[in-house]
Amino acid sequence: MTNFVRTDGRRCDEIRPIRFQNHIAPHAAGSTLVEWGNTRVICAATVEESVPRWMKEQKVPGGWLTAEYSMLPYSTLDRKARDITKLKLDGRSQEIQRLIGRSLRAVVDLERLGPRTLCIDCDVLQADGGTRTASITGAFVAVSLAIAKLQASGALAGSPVTGAVAAVSMGVFGGVPLLDLNYLEDKDASVDMNLVMNDRGQFIELQAAGEEATFSDTELAALLALGRKGIERLIEAQRQALGTTP
Fold it and tell me: Domain containing 155: what range?
């Protein structure tokens, strides 16, 4: 593994450079541009002082958090038509935005949020692998900024955020387990995996599949070890972006 040369020269256990540019969307309650290698995603959180109709009808206490995900037409090498031209959301985008919502709801106490809705929008400006993991990782920063704004205004007495959440991809490429695949690695990977975890080392979601291939217990353990290492690095980067580094 030590002699394996990746397409961009990284080590097998190394994530791409990541940085956050906060307050990129001034009209949002919280926003950040996450630049993760050559993948770039704007994540924004807005606040609606109401809850979905189903919550009112079922008398569900607290608030709600929901997410939307889209890839802009110029985010890929070949132009990607907007979903509106097909009059429906494509299956991949629907799957990813549900994943983003589930991931963030795992670290936000909805009852403490109060009767309001946090709406998260993740718009991919440039895609080079890992857009869903970048969206989740950036969305947590955006939500944290939005919550801080609510607290500063007096709308919230305490934070409903119970911990951090981040996501990273892993895969087997050329027979070697790798962390944080870029597009060239991802498209030819024999095994593809996405990991979502909180800052206590607990799993939120694990997605894994062989691409016309199988994988062993040993490979699964190696991928999870890489993923844990990546999550630790990402949560550290989030804390630095939020100014909460111990």
Answer: 18-242
Q: Is there a domain that residue 174 lies in? A: yes
Total domain count for the chain?
1
Residue 194 covered by a domain: yes
For position 72, which CATH number holds? 3.30.230.70
Whole-model pTM: value is 0.94
SS (H, E, C) the chain: CCCCCCCCCCCCCCCCCEEEEECCCCCCCEEEEEEECCEEEEEEEEEECCCCHHHHHCCCCCCEEEEEEEECCCCCCCCCCCHHHHCCCCHHHHHHHHHHHHHHHCCECHHHHCCCEEEEEEEEEECCCCHHHHHHHHHHHHHHHHHHHHHHHCCCCCCCECCCEEEEEEEEECCEEEECCCHHHHHCCCEEEEEEEECCCCEEEEEEEECCCCCCHHHHHHHHHHHHHHHHHHHHHHHHHHCCCC
| 10-58 pLDDT per residue, tens | 999 999 999 999 999 999 999 999 999 999 999 999 999 999 999 999 9
